[in-house]
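Note to self: keep these together.
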Amino acid sequence: MGSLHADNLENSCIENPLDPEEFRRQGHMMIDFLADYYRDVEKYPVRSQVEPGYLRKLLPESAPYNPEPIETILQDVQTQIVPGITHWQSPNYFAYFPSSGSIAGFLGEMLSTGFNVVGFNWMSSPAATELESIVMDWLGKMLKLPKSFLFSGNGGGVLQGTTCEAILCTLTAARDRMLNKIGRENICKLVVYGSDQTHCALQKAAQIAGIHPKNFRAVPTTKTNSFGLTPDALRSTILADIEAGLVPLFLCATVGTTSSTAVDPIGPLCEVAKDYWIWVHVDAAYAGSACICPEFRHFIDGVENADSFSLNAHKWFFTTLDCCCLWVKEPSALVKALSTNPEYLRNKATDSKQVVDYKDWQIALSRRFRSMKLWLVLRSYGVANLRNFLRSHVKMAKNFEGFIAQDKRFEIVVPRTFAMVCFRLLPPSPPLSIMKVYQNGNGVHHSNHLQDETRANELNHRLLESINASGSAYMTHAMVGGVYMIRFAVGATLTEERHVVLAWKVVQEHADTILATF
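Structure:
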Protein backbone atom coordinates (compact mmCIF):
# COMPACT_ATOMS: atom_id res chain seq x y z
CA MET A 1 0.00 0.00 0.00
CA GLY A 2 3.02 2.26 0.30
CA SER A 3 2.80 3.07 -3.44
CA LEU A 4 -0.75 4.42 -3.30
CA HIS A 5 0.32 8.05 -3.02
CA ALA A 6 2.69 7.71 -5.99
CA ASP A 7 -0.01 6.00 -8.04
CA ASN A 8 -2.36 8.91 -7.36
CA LEU A 9 0.26 11.37 -8.54
CA GLU A 10 0.70 9.39 -11.74
CA ASN A 11 -3.02 9.18 -12.39
CA SER A 12 -3.48 12.92 -11.88
CA CYS A 13 -1.38 13.78 -14.96
CA ILE A 14 -2.77 11.24 -17.42
CA GLU A 15 -3.89 12.70 -20.76
CA ASN A 16 -6.05 10.84 -23.22
CA PRO A 17 -3.71 9.13 -25.75
CA LEU A 18 -6.13 9.99 -28.55
CA ASP A 19 -7.06 13.56 -27.68
CA PRO A 20 -8.21 15.11 -30.99
CA GLU A 21 -6.53 18.49 -30.56
CA GLU A 22 -3.23 17.03 -29.42
CA PHE A 23 -3.45 14.60 -32.33
CA ARG A 24 -3.92 17.56 -34.68
CA ARG A 25 -0.91 19.40 -33.21
CA GLN A 26 1.45 16.44 -33.29
CA GLY A 27 0.14 15.27 -36.66
CA HIS A 28 1.02 18.60 -38.27
CA MET A 29 4.50 18.33 -36.81
CA MET A 30 4.92 14.83 -38.20
CA ILE A 31 3.78 15.84 -41.70
CA ASP A 32 6.19 18.77 -41.65
CA PHE A 33 8.99 16.44 -40.54
CA LEU A 34 8.31 13.98 -43.36
CA ALA A 35 7.85 16.69 -45.98
CA ASP A 36 11.28 18.04 -45.04
CA TYR A 37 12.65 14.50 -45.19
CA TYR A 38 11.39 13.97 -48.75
CA ARG A 39 12.75 17.39 -49.72
CA ASP A 40 16.19 16.61 -48.34
CA VAL A 41 16.42 12.84 -48.80
CA GLU A 42 18.80 12.98 -51.76
CA LYS A 43 21.35 14.73 -49.54
CA TYR A 44 21.70 11.68 -47.31
CA PRO A 45 24.01 8.74 -48.06
CA VAL A 46 21.64 6.30 -49.75
CA ARG A 47 22.93 3.21 -47.98
CA SER A 48 23.25 3.64 -44.24
CA GLN A 49 26.86 4.09 -43.19
CA VAL A 50 26.49 2.92 -39.57
CA GLU A 51 28.10 -0.12 -37.99
CA PRO A 52 26.16 -3.02 -36.42
CA GLY A 53 25.07 -2.22 -32.87
CA TYR A 54 25.31 1.55 -33.33
CA LEU A 55 21.84 2.28 -31.94
CA ARG A 56 22.18 0.37 -28.67
CA LYS A 57 25.09 2.67 -27.81
CA LEU A 58 22.85 5.71 -28.26
CA LEU A 59 19.59 4.70 -26.59
CA PRO A 60 18.91 4.12 -22.87
CA GLU A 61 18.81 0.57 -21.56
CA SER A 62 15.18 0.86 -20.44
CA ALA A 63 12.00 2.70 -21.43
CA PRO A 64 11.35 6.15 -19.94
CA TYR A 65 9.27 6.18 -16.74
CA ASN A 66 7.76 9.57 -17.47
CA PRO A 67 6.42 10.87 -20.80
CA GLU A 68 8.66 12.75 -23.20
CA PRO A 69 7.47 15.50 -25.58
CA ILE A 70 7.10 14.76 -29.28
CA GLU A 71 9.59 17.54 -30.02
CA THR A 72 12.31 15.64 -28.17
CA ILE A 73 11.37 12.36 -29.81
CA LEU A 74 11.46 13.84 -33.31
CA GLN A 75 14.85 15.36 -32.62
CA ASP A 76 16.10 11.90 -31.64
CA VAL A 77 14.59 10.46 -34.82
CA GLN A 78 16.63 12.96 -36.81
CA THR A 79 19.90 12.47 -34.98
CA GLN A 80 19.75 8.78 -34.04
CA ILE A 81 17.36 6.98 -36.42
CA VAL A 82 17.83 8.72 -39.77
CA PRO A 83 21.58 7.89 -39.91
CA GLY A 84 20.65 4.21 -39.55
CA ILE A 85 18.13 4.25 -42.40
CA THR A 86 18.89 3.05 -45.90
CA HIS A 87 16.85 5.57 -47.84
CA TRP A 88 14.52 3.58 -50.10
CA GLN A 89 12.75 6.80 -51.14
CA SER A 90 15.97 8.48 -52.24
CA PRO A 91 16.09 9.38 -55.94
CA ASN A 92 19.55 7.79 -55.94
CA TYR A 93 18.20 4.43 -54.78
CA PHE A 94 18.57 1.77 -57.50
CA ALA A 95 18.92 -1.38 -55.35
CA TYR A 96 16.80 -4.54 -55.08
CA PHE A 97 13.40 -3.52 -56.48
CA PRO A 98 11.78 -0.17 -55.73
CA SER A 99 9.47 0.50 -52.82
CA SER A 100 7.76 3.38 -54.54
CA GLY A 101 5.69 5.75 -52.45
CA SER A 102 3.34 8.60 -53.29
CA ILE A 103 1.29 11.26 -51.59
CA ALA A 104 -1.87 9.28 -52.31
CA GLY A 105 -0.38 6.06 -50.97
CA PHE A 106 0.83 7.80 -47.83
CA LEU A 107 -2.48 9.56 -47.19
CA GLY A 108 -4.36 6.31 -47.79
CA GLU A 109 -2.11 4.70 -45.21
CA MET A 110 -2.94 7.53 -42.82
CA LEU A 111 -6.67 6.94 -43.28
CA SER A 112 -6.25 3.20 -42.84
CA THR A 113 -4.17 3.63 -39.70
CA GLY A 114 -6.45 6.36 -38.40
CA PHE A 115 -9.57 4.24 -38.68
CA ASN A 116 -7.57 1.33 -37.26
CA VAL A 117 -10.22 -1.27 -38.06
CA VAL A 118 -9.57 -5.00 -37.80
CA GLY A 119 -11.45 -6.13 -40.88
CA PHE A 120 -11.28 -9.91 -40.56
CA ASN A 121 -14.83 -10.40 -41.81
CA TRP A 122 -17.51 -8.35 -43.51
CA MET A 123 -19.33 -7.58 -40.27
CA SER A 124 -16.21 -6.19 -38.59
CA SER A 125 -16.11 -3.36 -41.17
CA PRO A 126 -18.27 -3.75 -44.27
CA ALA A 127 -16.57 -0.88 -46.11
CA ALA A 128 -13.12 -2.45 -45.71
CA THR A 129 -14.26 -5.72 -47.27
CA GLU A 130 -16.34 -4.20 -50.05
CA LEU A 131 -13.76 -1.59 -51.04
CA GLU A 132 -11.13 -4.32 -51.27
CA SER A 133 -13.30 -6.39 -53.59
CA ILE A 134 -14.01 -3.35 -55.75
CA VAL A 135 -10.42 -2.10 -56.13
CA MET A 136 -9.20 -5.62 -56.87
CA ASP A 137 -11.71 -5.83 -59.72
CA TRP A 138 -10.65 -2.35 -60.89
CA LEU A 139 -6.98 -3.30 -60.99
CA GLY A 140 -7.77 -6.68 -62.55
CA LYS A 141 -9.56 -4.90 -65.38
CA MET A 142 -6.63 -2.50 -65.81
CA LEU A 143 -4.41 -5.56 -66.28
CA LYS A 144 -6.97 -7.13 -68.63
CA LEU A 145 -7.07 -10.23 -66.46
CA PRO A 146 -9.66 -12.74 -67.64
CA LYS A 147 -13.09 -12.41 -66.04
CA SER A 148 -12.51 -15.72 -64.27
CA PHE A 149 -10.14 -13.89 -61.90
CA LEU A 150 -12.71 -11.22 -60.99
CA PHE A 151 -15.60 -11.35 -58.55
CA SER A 152 -17.94 -10.82 -61.48
CA GLY A 153 -16.66 -14.06 -62.96
CA ASN A 154 -16.71 -16.21 -59.79
CA GLY A 155 -13.06 -15.57 -59.05
CA GLY A 156 -11.79 -12.76 -56.87
CA GLY A 157 -8.95 -10.71 -55.47
CA VAL A 158 -7.51 -10.18 -52.00
CA LEU A 159 -4.82 -7.90 -50.60
CA GLN A 160 -2.09 -9.81 -48.83
CA GLY A 161 0.93 -8.34 -47.08
CA THR A 162 3.62 -9.73 -49.39
CA THR A 163 4.23 -12.20 -52.20
CA CYS A 164 5.53 -14.65 -49.59
CA GLU A 165 2.04 -14.74 -48.09
CA ALA A 166 0.35 -14.97 -51.50
CA ILE A 167 2.45 -17.97 -52.52
CA LEU A 168 1.96 -19.69 -49.18
CA CYS A 169 -1.82 -19.25 -49.34
CA THR A 170 -2.11 -20.56 -52.89
CA LEU A 171 0.29 -23.44 -52.24
CA THR A 172 -1.71 -24.41 -49.17
CA ALA A 173 -4.93 -24.35 -51.22
CA ALA A 174 -3.31 -26.46 -53.94
CA ARG A 175 -1.95 -28.89 -51.34
CA ASP A 176 -5.32 -29.48 -49.70
CA ARG A 177 -7.11 -29.77 -53.02
CA MET A 178 -4.68 -32.47 -54.09
CA LEU A 179 -4.62 -34.30 -50.75
CA ASN A 180 -8.40 -34.43 -50.69
CA LYS A 181 -8.07 -36.36 -53.94
CA ILE A 182 -5.16 -38.70 -53.15
CA GLY A 183 -5.30 -38.92 -49.35
CA ARG A 184 -3.53 -36.85 -46.70
CA GLU A 185 -1.12 -39.64 -45.95
CA ASN A 186 0.50 -38.92 -49.33
CA ILE A 187 1.74 -35.42 -48.51
CA CYS A 188 5.31 -36.71 -48.71
CA LYS A 189 4.80 -37.37 -52.44
CA LEU A 190 3.85 -33.81 -53.41
CA VAL A 191 6.31 -31.89 -55.59
CA VAL A 192 6.67 -28.10 -56.04
CA TYR A 193 8.26 -26.60 -59.14
CA GLY A 194 10.02 -23.34 -59.93
CA SER A 195 13.20 -22.42 -61.74
CA ASP A 196 16.64 -21.64 -60.39
CA GLN A 197 15.62 -17.98 -60.80
CA THR A 198 12.35 -18.24 -58.83
CA HIS A 199 12.18 -16.14 -55.68
CA CYS A 200 13.16 -17.92 -52.46
CA ALA A 201 9.64 -17.24 -51.17
CA LEU A 202 8.53 -20.37 -53.02
CA GLN A 203 10.96 -22.60 -51.15
CA LYS A 204 10.00 -21.05 -47.83
CA ALA A 205 6.29 -21.56 -48.58
CA ALA A 206 6.96 -25.20 -49.48
CA GLN A 207 8.74 -25.74 -46.18
CA ILE A 208 5.92 -24.17 -44.18
CA ALA A 209 3.26 -26.10 -46.12
CA GLY A 210 4.91 -29.41 -45.23
CA ILE A 211 6.37 -30.28 -48.64
CA HIS A 212 9.31 -32.66 -48.20
CA PRO A 213 12.55 -30.69 -48.78
CA LYS A 214 13.67 -33.28 -51.34
CA ASN A 215 10.52 -32.57 -53.38
CA PHE A 216 11.32 -28.95 -54.19
CA ARG A 217 12.46 -28.51 -57.79
CA ALA A 218 14.50 -25.51 -58.96
CA VAL A 219 14.64 -26.35 -62.66
CA PRO A 220 17.85 -25.03 -64.28
CA THR A 221 17.66 -22.14 -66.75
CA THR A 222 20.21 -20.93 -69.30
CA LYS A 223 21.32 -17.69 -70.87
CA THR A 224 20.17 -19.05 -74.22
CA ASN A 225 16.58 -18.66 -73.01
CA SER A 226 17.28 -15.43 -71.12
CA PHE A 227 17.06 -17.43 -67.87
CA GLY A 228 13.37 -18.18 -68.35
CA LEU A 229 11.93 -21.58 -67.47
CA THR A 230 11.34 -23.63 -70.62
CA PRO A 231 8.32 -25.93 -71.07
CA ASP A 232 10.58 -28.80 -72.17
CA ALA A 233 12.72 -28.57 -69.05
CA LEU A 234 9.61 -28.47 -66.88
CA ARG A 235 7.99 -31.45 -68.58
CA SER A 236 11.10 -33.62 -68.38
CA THR A 237 11.41 -32.84 -64.67
CA ILE A 238 7.74 -33.68 -64.09
CA LEU A 239 8.01 -36.96 -65.98
CA ALA A 240 11.02 -38.01 -63.92
CA ASP A 241 9.07 -37.31 -60.74
CA ILE A 242 6.04 -39.27 -61.92
CA GLU A 243 8.35 -42.17 -62.84
CA ALA A 244 9.65 -42.05 -59.26
CA GLY A 245 6.12 -42.32 -57.89
CA LEU A 246 5.79 -38.66 -56.88
CA VAL A 247 2.82 -36.33 -57.41
CA PRO A 248 3.31 -32.97 -59.22
CA LEU A 249 1.45 -30.28 -57.28
CA PHE A 250 2.39 -26.64 -57.84
CA LEU A 251 4.28 -24.48 -60.33
CA CYS A 252 5.35 -20.90 -59.68
CA ALA A 253 6.02 -19.09 -62.96
CA THR A 254 7.63 -15.66 -62.71
CA VAL A 255 7.19 -12.48 -64.72
CA GLY A 256 10.23 -10.39 -63.82
CA THR A 257 12.61 -12.49 -61.73
CA THR A 258 14.54 -10.84 -58.93
CA SER A 259 17.99 -11.54 -60.36
CA SER A 260 17.48 -10.34 -63.93
CA THR A 261 13.74 -9.65 -64.56
CA ALA A 262 13.55 -12.80 -66.69
CA VAL A 263 10.08 -13.79 -67.87
CA ASP A 264 8.82 -17.35 -67.82
CA PRO A 265 6.53 -18.17 -70.79
CA ILE A 266 3.22 -18.44 -68.95
CA GLY A 267 1.08 -19.85 -71.76
CA PRO A 268 3.36 -22.75 -72.75
CA LEU A 269 4.08 -23.59 -69.10
CA CYS A 270 0.36 -23.70 -68.33
CA GLU A 271 -0.11 -26.09 -71.25
CA VAL A 272 2.38 -28.46 -69.64
CA ALA A 273 0.90 -28.04 -66.17
CA LYS A 274 -2.68 -28.81 -67.20
CA ASP A 275 -1.60 -32.27 -68.38
CA TYR A 276 -0.75 -33.14 -64.78
CA TRP A 277 -3.40 -31.19 -62.83
CA ILE A 278 -0.75 -28.81 -61.47
CA TRP A 279 -1.80 -25.52 -59.83
CA VAL A 280 -0.04 -22.66 -61.63
CA HIS A 281 0.69 -19.46 -59.73
CA VAL A 282 2.07 -16.48 -61.63
CA ASP A 283 4.38 -14.32 -59.53
CA ALA A 284 4.57 -10.88 -61.13
CA ALA A 285 5.57 -9.11 -57.91
CA TYR A 286 7.78 -6.54 -59.63
CA ALA A 287 6.81 -6.47 -63.29
CA GLY A 288 3.07 -6.98 -62.97
CA SER A 289 2.50 -3.27 -62.44
CA ALA A 290 3.99 -2.50 -65.86
CA CYS A 291 1.40 -4.75 -67.47
CA ILE A 292 -1.24 -2.04 -67.13
CA CYS A 293 0.63 -0.52 -70.10
CA PRO A 294 -0.52 -2.08 -73.40
CA GLU A 295 3.07 -2.43 -74.62
CA PHE A 296 3.93 -4.70 -71.65
CA ARG A 297 0.67 -6.64 -71.35
CA HIS A 298 1.94 -9.44 -73.61
CA PHE A 299 4.30 -10.59 -70.86
CA ILE A 300 1.34 -12.09 -69.01
CA ASP A 301 -0.30 -13.64 -72.07
CA GLY A 302 -1.52 -17.08 -71.11
CA VAL A 303 -2.54 -16.01 -67.59
CA GLU A 304 -6.07 -17.14 -68.43
CA ASN A 305 -4.85 -20.71 -67.97
CA ALA A 306 -3.20 -20.08 -64.59
CA ASP A 307 -4.92 -20.62 -61.24
CA SER A 308 -3.64 -17.54 -59.43
CA PHE A 309 -1.77 -14.32 -60.14
CA SER A 310 -0.09 -11.78 -57.88
CA LEU A 311 1.78 -8.48 -58.00
CA ASN A 312 3.12 -6.14 -55.34
CA ALA A 313 1.56 -2.69 -55.51
CA HIS A 314 4.14 -1.62 -52.92
CA LYS A 315 7.00 -2.29 -55.33
CA TRP A 316 6.30 -0.32 -58.50
CA PHE A 317 2.76 0.97 -58.12
CA PHE A 318 3.20 3.92 -55.75
CA THR A 319 1.38 2.23 -52.85
CA THR A 320 3.20 2.08 -49.54
CA LEU A 321 4.30 -1.22 -48.02
CA ASP A 322 2.58 -3.58 -47.58
CA CYS A 323 0.17 -4.29 -50.42
CA CYS A 324 0.33 -7.53 -52.41
CA CYS A 325 -2.53 -8.07 -54.86
CA LEU A 326 -3.58 -11.70 -55.30
CA TRP A 327 -6.25 -12.98 -57.68
CA VAL A 328 -7.55 -16.54 -57.72
CA LYS A 329 -9.91 -18.36 -60.04
CA GLU A 330 -11.24 -20.63 -57.33
CA PRO A 331 -11.70 -18.69 -54.06
CA SER A 332 -13.36 -21.73 -52.51
CA ALA A 333 -10.00 -23.52 -52.63
CA LEU A 334 -8.50 -20.82 -50.41
CA VAL A 335 -11.48 -20.82 -48.09
CA LYS A 336 -11.49 -24.61 -47.67
CA ALA A 337 -7.78 -24.60 -46.80
CA LEU A 338 -7.63 -21.51 -44.62
CA SER A 339 -10.99 -20.97 -42.91
CA THR A 340 -11.86 -21.39 -39.25
CA ASN A 341 -15.30 -20.61 -37.86
CA PRO A 342 -15.32 -20.31 -34.07
CA GLU A 343 -18.59 -19.47 -32.37
CA TYR A 344 -17.42 -16.00 -31.31
CA LEU A 345 -17.06 -14.95 -34.98
CA ARG A 346 -20.45 -16.23 -36.12
CA ASN A 347 -22.81 -13.58 -37.44
CA LYS A 348 -25.86 -13.20 -39.66
CA ALA A 349 -23.96 -11.84 -42.67
CA THR A 350 -21.49 -14.73 -42.71
CA ASP A 351 -24.24 -17.28 -42.27
CA SER A 352 -26.08 -15.79 -45.26
CA LYS A 353 -23.09 -16.66 -47.50
CA GLN A 354 -23.71 -13.39 -49.34
CA VAL A 355 -20.50 -11.70 -48.20
CA VAL A 356 -16.74 -12.21 -48.40
CA ASP A 357 -14.91 -12.88 -45.14
CA TYR A 358 -11.31 -12.17 -46.04
CA LYS A 359 -9.99 -13.90 -42.92
CA ASP A 360 -10.54 -17.11 -44.88
CA TRP A 361 -8.35 -15.93 -47.78
CA GLN A 362 -5.18 -15.42 -45.73
CA ILE A 363 -2.96 -16.92 -43.01
CA ALA A 364 -3.73 -14.48 -40.19
CA LEU A 365 -7.11 -13.62 -38.69
CA SER A 366 -6.58 -9.88 -38.25
CA ARG A 367 -6.10 -7.71 -41.29
CA ARG A 368 -5.49 -4.09 -42.15
CA PHE A 369 -7.58 -1.75 -44.30
CA ARG A 370 -5.06 -1.95 -47.16
CA SER A 371 -7.59 -1.20 -49.89
CA MET A 372 -7.86 2.41 -48.70
CA LYS A 373 -4.39 3.31 -49.94
CA LEU A 374 -4.76 1.45 -53.22
CA TRP A 375 -8.12 3.19 -53.77
CA LEU A 376 -6.51 6.59 -53.21
CA VAL A 377 -3.66 5.77 -55.62
CA LEU A 378 -6.04 4.66 -58.37
CA ARG A 379 -8.31 7.68 -57.94
CA SER A 380 -5.64 10.33 -57.35
CA TYR A 381 -3.54 9.47 -60.42
CA GLY A 382 -5.81 7.59 -62.79
CA VAL A 383 -4.80 4.95 -65.29
CA ALA A 384 -3.23 7.39 -67.76
CA ASN A 385 -0.85 8.96 -65.23
CA LEU A 386 0.06 5.65 -63.66
CA ARG A 387 1.06 4.33 -67.07
CA ASN A 388 3.14 7.44 -67.74
CA PHE A 389 4.92 7.17 -64.38
CA LEU A 390 5.91 3.60 -65.20
CA ARG A 391 6.97 4.50 -68.73
CA SER A 392 9.19 7.29 -67.41
CA HIS A 393 11.09 4.77 -65.29
CA VAL A 394 11.50 2.43 -68.25
CA LYS A 395 12.78 5.34 -70.34
CA MET A 396 15.36 6.27 -67.70
CA ALA A 397 16.55 2.67 -67.50
CA LYS A 398 16.82 2.59 -71.27
CA ASN A 399 18.95 5.73 -71.18
CA PHE A 400 21.24 4.17 -68.56
CA GLU A 401 21.52 1.14 -70.81
CA GLY A 402 22.63 3.49 -73.58
CA PHE A 403 25.35 4.98 -71.39
CA ILE A 404 26.76 1.51 -70.78
CA ALA A 405 26.73 0.69 -74.48
CA GLN A 406 28.87 3.75 -75.19
CA ASP A 407 31.61 2.71 -72.75
CA LYS A 408 33.36 -0.40 -74.07
CA ARG A 409 34.74 -1.19 -70.63
CA PHE A 410 31.25 -2.37 -69.63
CA GLU A 411 28.74 -4.87 -70.94
CA ILE A 412 25.05 -5.62 -70.54
CA VAL A 413 24.84 -9.10 -69.04
CA VAL A 414 21.19 -9.88 -69.83
CA PRO A 415 18.71 -7.99 -72.03
CA ARG A 416 16.76 -5.20 -70.33
CA THR A 417 13.04 -6.03 -70.21
CA PHE A 418 11.50 -3.46 -67.87
CA ALA A 419 13.23 -0.76 -65.79
CA MET A 420 16.24 -2.69 -64.54
CA VAL A 421 19.64 -2.87 -66.22
CA CYS A 422 22.05 -5.71 -65.40
CA PHE A 423 25.64 -4.83 -66.27
CA ARG A 424 29.23 -5.44 -65.34
CA LEU A 425 32.67 -3.95 -65.75
CA LEU A 426 34.98 -6.03 -67.91
CA PRO A 427 38.41 -6.77 -66.45
CA PRO A 428 41.46 -5.58 -68.36
CA SER A 429 43.51 -8.28 -70.05
CA PRO A 430 46.11 -9.60 -67.59
CA PRO A 431 49.81 -9.22 -68.43
CA LEU A 432 51.23 -12.06 -70.48
CA SER A 433 53.60 -12.88 -67.63
CA ILE A 434 50.71 -14.06 -65.45
CA MET A 435 48.27 -15.17 -68.14
CA LYS A 436 47.66 -18.90 -68.22
CA VAL A 437 47.26 -20.02 -71.79
CA TYR A 438 46.67 -23.22 -73.60
CA GLN A 439 47.20 -24.17 -77.20
CA ASN A 440 44.14 -25.12 -79.22
CA GLY A 441 44.04 -26.98 -82.49
CA ASN A 442 44.26 -23.77 -84.53
CA GLY A 443 47.32 -22.47 -82.77
CA VAL A 444 45.38 -19.62 -81.04
CA HIS A 445 46.03 -18.78 -77.39
CA HIS A 446 43.07 -18.28 -75.06
CA SER A 447 43.05 -17.27 -71.40
CA ASN A 448 41.37 -19.73 -69.12
CA HIS A 449 37.65 -18.87 -69.20
CA LEU A 450 36.97 -19.84 -65.60
CA GLN A 451 39.84 -17.73 -64.36
CA ASP A 452 38.59 -14.77 -66.42
CA GLU A 453 35.11 -15.04 -64.89
CA THR A 454 36.57 -15.23 -61.39
CA ARG A 455 38.56 -12.04 -62.04
CA ALA A 456 35.51 -10.33 -63.52
CA ASN A 457 33.36 -11.28 -60.56
CA GLU A 458 35.92 -9.99 -58.08
CA LEU A 459 36.29 -6.75 -60.03
CA ASN A 460 32.54 -6.09 -60.01
CA HIS A 461 32.21 -7.00 -56.36
CA ARG A 462 34.82 -4.36 -55.57
CA LEU A 463 33.18 -1.84 -57.88
CA LEU A 464 29.75 -2.29 -56.31
CA GLU A 465 31.03 -2.02 -52.77
CA SER A 466 32.98 1.11 -53.65
CA ILE A 467 29.89 2.75 -55.18
CA ASN A 468 27.65 1.87 -52.24
CA ALA A 469 30.20 2.89 -49.61
CA SER A 470 30.33 6.34 -51.18
CA GLY A 471 26.68 6.95 -50.35
CA SER A 472 26.15 8.64 -53.72
CA ALA A 473 24.02 5.81 -55.09
CA TYR A 474 22.88 2.39 -54.00
CA MET A 475 22.75 -0.70 -56.23
CA THR A 476 22.75 -4.43 -55.53
CA HIS A 477 24.02 -7.51 -57.31
CA ALA A 478 22.92 -10.91 -58.55
CA MET A 479 24.61 -14.03 -59.92
CA VAL A 480 23.27 -15.59 -63.11
CA GLY A 481 25.06 -18.33 -64.97
CA GLY A 482 28.08 -17.89 -62.71
CA VAL A 483 28.34 -14.18 -63.62
CA TYR A 484 28.36 -11.53 -60.89
CA MET A 485 26.45 -8.56 -62.22
CA ILE A 486 25.31 -5.20 -60.88
CA ARG A 487 21.56 -4.52 -60.91
CA PHE A 488 20.44 -0.95 -61.61
CA ALA A 489 16.70 -0.78 -60.89
CA VAL A 490 14.94 2.50 -61.64
CA GLY A 491 11.67 2.97 -59.79
CA ALA A 492 11.98 5.33 -56.84
CA THR A 493 9.23 7.92 -57.17
CA LEU A 494 11.56 10.90 -56.77
CA THR A 495 14.09 9.71 -59.37
CA GLU A 496 14.58 12.01 -62.36
CA GLU A 497 16.82 11.77 -65.40
CA ARG A 498 19.49 13.86 -63.68
CA HIS A 499 19.83 11.24 -60.97
CA VAL A 500 20.39 8.52 -63.55
CA VAL A 501 23.05 10.65 -65.24
CA LEU A 502 24.71 11.25 -61.88
CA ALA A 503 24.62 7.54 -61.06
CA TRP A 504 26.38 6.72 -64.32
CA LYS A 505 29.09 9.28 -63.54
CA VAL A 506 29.53 7.69 -60.11
CA VAL A 507 29.89 4.26 -61.74
CA GLN A 508 32.49 5.56 -64.20
CA GLU A 509 34.51 7.40 -61.54
CA HIS A 510 34.70 4.38 -59.26
CA ALA A 511 35.52 2.14 -62.23
CA ASP A 512 38.41 4.44 -63.11
CA THR A 513 39.79 4.22 -59.59
CA ILE A 514 39.47 0.44 -59.29
CA LEU A 515 40.86 -0.33 -62.74
CA ALA A 516 43.93 1.75 -61.94
CA THR A 517 44.92 -0.75 -59.26
CA PHE A 518 43.33 -3.99 -60.48
